Amino acid sequence: MRLLRVDRHSPLPIYYQIKEWLREQIESEVLKPQDRIPSERDLEQEFGISRMTARRALGELEAEGYVYREQGRGSFVAESKIRQGLLRLTSFTEEMQKRGMRAGARVLRTQKVDHDKHLASRFGVYAEEVFILVERLRLANGKPMVLETAFLREMFCPGLEEVDLNNRSLYETLRERYGIQLGRAEQTVEARVADDYEAKVLEARPGTPVLAVERLTYLSDGKTPIEYVRSLYRGDRYRLFIELRR
Amino acid sequence: MRLLRVDRHSPLPIYYQIKEWLREQIESEVLKPQDRIPSERDLEQEFGISRMTARRALGELEAEGYVYREQGRGSFVAESKIRQGLLRLTSFTEEMQKRGMRAGARVLRTQKVDHDKHLASRFGVYAEEVFILVERLRLANGKPMVLETAFLREMFCPGLEEVDLNNRSLYETLRERYGIQLGRAEQTVEARVADDYEAKVLEARPGTPVLAVERLTYLSDGKTPIEYVRSLYRGDRYRLFIELRR
DNA sequence: AAGTGGTCTAGACCACGTC
DNA sequence: ACGTGGTCTAGACCACTTG
Q: How far is the C-alpha of B83 from the C-alpha of B79, rounded, in Å?
């Protein structure tokens, strides 16, 4: 162990440096489920920090499902099953990777949209605003999985309609090209049947059941909407996994 | 304000007393969205506690979506929309109440089940264990909404098959009659079409799309499975709402 | 300049589990 | 008895927002 030295001049808080270091150990499986994690007093000594700082690092890992703690016994790496169940705002690409599948994307259409009252009201912005539409077929191991129609506010990502989004993660592009950090999303899920066009694109029978997901994604300030997506998941190929608490 | 006096001899932590006091003010709308919440230093003085303790109370309220905090400005009550979006483990009854609808239940079948290998493996328990099956049609404003088949471990709720669960909340019964506190649940959601029996009970056409939800519910220790439920939601009447973070 | 939240310290006592 | 996590204190400095 001990490959980390905390940097006291970093803008990143100490608790965060320690938390991320431990998280990497867990995700890379250097630390496996049920393994013991250094105690709060260990971390205190090891890094010359106060116990409250060590506690914060462990506390956040617990809240995110990476570790569980037992009074009198210690802190341990949690089952990865529980971690996966946490509802994180992730891209299709990340999600498929977690499921051990290869994610792909085929762009069907990109265009600008403006003066769309209905769309603007979804975002809660002025009707004059310009949006960029990106319609893509998402593939898992080369097979059609999701028909995804995303609308992005052009003012935050000008020129996006020129970017080649075939087999590229949209969220990665937003982050790398526009410095956009996503914060949270509101999502509704319902069951319906695919119409003829949808079924054809998904290579399924018309009338096939689909999960219709609508998502409104906000920037990391939690207030500014940036993306509205409608996704149609093939009911026979996709299952949503959710962990509920309390 | 100031209707609370912290009890230093209570087994309940001080931060928890303050947190619950504030939560009640928010839920009862004494404090409304955007209202300012006492600052950390206010609480410190007001209750004669240290600032770290006040911070913990506010921090948990933030994590649960009740308040948002802005550096340099203060802490404020969050929009109730955001709070509702948090994924909480709730009963159908509670959920319908939140949506402003009247929840009902019609028992279709209750019976004991034992030596069911498939079922026992879902729970991860011995195949010999006895379960109680409760099949109910759940109604919203008197109309069929969900076909719900629950399996409970008899050892935790003996005699449940004798209880009249018509128009009664199962979770309320578990709590009041057996002292059972639920902790978390793992849930999968998929889209499929109803078969003839399901459609008939739900008073829908055969082939109607449904949200098929499977839930494994654990006690408050987070480890002991207690209930396994399969629910079929009418696709045309039900939408799942989810809030994603990070 | 004053007030706010964000981070951090160096202690303390307690409840609990293990040896 | 010892080590663990859970709570709590009384300070400190910082970054940020507002008047």
A: 7
